[in-house]
Structures are given as C-alpha cells and as structure tokens.
Write a structure and sequence with these properties.
Layout lengths: L1 H28 L6 H14 L6 H6 L2 H8 L4 H13 L3
Helix pairs in contact: 2-5, 4-5
C-alpha cells in the first residue's frame, strides 16, 4: 500500500511540478524561446555548424560579440548556451 501511495505522489505531484519549474526557468532565461522564428534560428545554426563549417549567411545572422565568445570557448555545452543567447535574447 505504501509503494502505491509513493507512486501516485511521484507521478501526479513531483513530476508535474518539476516540468513546470523547468519550463518557467527556461522561459525566464531565454524569453524568445516561445517564438518559432527564434527556435528556427537556433536549430539552423546547430545543424549548419554540426559538420564543422558554416555558411556566410549563418555567420551574419549572429551578433559579432557572440561570435567572438563562441570562437574562444572550448566547452561544447557553453557554445550551445551562447548560440541560444544569440537567438533567444534578441528582441
């Protein structure tokens, strides 16, 4: 009986609160993520740069400050965060 009670609590209380908190956190950090055009910018940059080369149009779509930060970063996770900043924080 206790195991069933824990599963109900976990599935119906903890997981929805976690998903809600994650969604609110991401939207507060990157407010432009809710617009389809900004998500398209993010995925285009990721797909275009996945083979190691970028088109000139992709480079021109990114702010020069972000380009310098992305180039000087060795961590792939931080590069993705900077690309997200360049797409989702422009207003």
């Amino acid at each position: 009986m206790r195991r069933k009670n824990f599963q109900n609590t976990f599935y119906f209380k903890i997981i929805p609160i976690f998903i809600l908190g994650l969604s609110v956190g991401i939207i507060s950090i990157w407010p432009g993520i809710i617009f389809a055009n900004n998500r398209k910018c993010f995925f285009n940059i990721l797909l275009d740069g996945s083979d190691g080369s970028l088109r000139v149009g992709t480079l021109l779509s990114i702010n020069s400050n972000y380009l310098l930060k992305i180039k000087n970063t060795n961590n792939k996770y931080l590069k993705i965060l900077l690309i997200g900043d360049s797409c989702f924080r422009k207003f």
